[in-house]
Known about the structure:
It catalyses: S-sulfanyl-L-cysteinyl-[protein] + uridine(34) in tRNA + AH2 + ATP = 2-thiouridine(34) in tRNA + L-cysteinyl-[protein] + A + AMP + diphosphate + H(+). ATP binds at residues 6-13, 32, 125. By secondary structure, the protein is of the alpha/beta class. It folds into three domains: 2-183, Rossmann fold (3-Layer(aba) Sandwich), CATH 3.40.50.620; 215-272, Adenine nucleotide alpha hydrolases-like domains (SH3 type barrels), CATH 2.30.30.280; 278-361, Translation factors (Elongation Factor Tu (Ef-tu), domain 3), CATH 2.40.30. 24% of the residues lie in helices and 30% in strands. The chain contains seven helices and 17 strands. The protein has helices at 11-22, 51-64, 74-90, 97-116, 159-163, 174-183, 205-213; strands spanning 2-6, 26-33, 68-72, 121-123, 128-132, 138-142, 165-166, 218-221, 227-231, 258-263, 268-272, 278-289, 297-303, 311-318, 321-331, 338-343, 346-357. It has a six-stranded antiparallel beta barrel with strand order 12-15-14-13-16-17. Helix 1 (11-22) runs parallel beside helix 2 and helix 1 (11-22) crosses helix 6 (174-183). The protein is globular, with a radius of gyration of 22 Å. The chain starts with a strand and ends in a 6-residue tail after the last strand. The model has no long low-confidence stretch (mean pLDDT 91).
Amino acid sequence: MRVLAAMSGGVDSAVAAARAVDAGHEVTGVHLALSKNPQSFRSGARGCCSREDAHDARRAADRLGIPFYVWDLSDRFAAEVVEDFVAEYAAGRTPNPCLRCNEKIKFEAVLERGLALGFDAVCTGHYARLERGEDGSVELHRAVDQAKDQSYVLGVLTAHQLAHSLFPLGPSTKIEVRAEAAARGLSVAAKPDSHDICFIADGDTAGFLDARLGRRPGAVVDADGTLLGEHDGTHHFTVGQRRGLRLGVPAADGRPRFVLDVTPVSGTVTVGPREALAVTHLAGTRPTWTGAVPAGRWRGLVQVRAHGGPVGATLELRKDELVVDTDQPLVGVAPGQAVVAYDDTRVVGSATISSTRSPALTS
């Protein structure tokens, strides 16, 4: 196959490209330039997409003896990922930009362009497994290394996209991948992993949002509406947050308070005890499916965070909304997050959480 290897400049994508070469594919490396003004160097493990990353990707491609190109997708990344991120926070929701990037950039923009150029598949360094049936069907499964599993952030992919994808690292652990990179003489073997949000390299999400949304003062209240303090903008808060509340009135029981709700229209942030964060009912919009659309009610597992644990649930698709009732309460679930559904290790699909309900109100 002709394979387009997305090379970020990190160890995972370099080894994934190397394995694609070993498998006999005709591999071309491509680095995605996602920033209009990239930094020269990374700040430790924060961010990515710096000039240093582009150079590291090119060096890895040279080591593998494959062609290498840089694709400028900065305009589309700004529109589809960064602007969406800001708009979601402005609306009181908590987005996951990694899912959005996978959906709109790596497996939509890149795959579309790759197929148009005659490539058969896109190869990435994600930790997930693909199982291909004799009938041509493709299933997305969790990686062997549970600590590195990235199937959650791939839950937005469609069956068509998965059919044209390769995830060579799925059967391996991170330790094995680093050892392989060193054995291959790849200079990125010991390079730190990227963490946090790639387009906020300094990690100051509040400052990033302030620069784009400005100061929007409002009230911090408890569940019965009692004023407890003030804030500079609802975009500083997400459901489940504990730090940075700046409350002038301590709780009567002395226990910490958490953000229970964010309402940008009124500028109100509601706080309360941790137990008030528990929910057992979720509804999600914009469902996507990795295979056939499930019919009726079914039993499965759901996960609401990239590194969260799965819980048992009953699920049902009602028109264009995925309705989920979990077997045990989930804490700190915010609208805007993704709920990803599994059948054991297989990813069934995902949806964007639009509403939640506590155990006391779940029918």
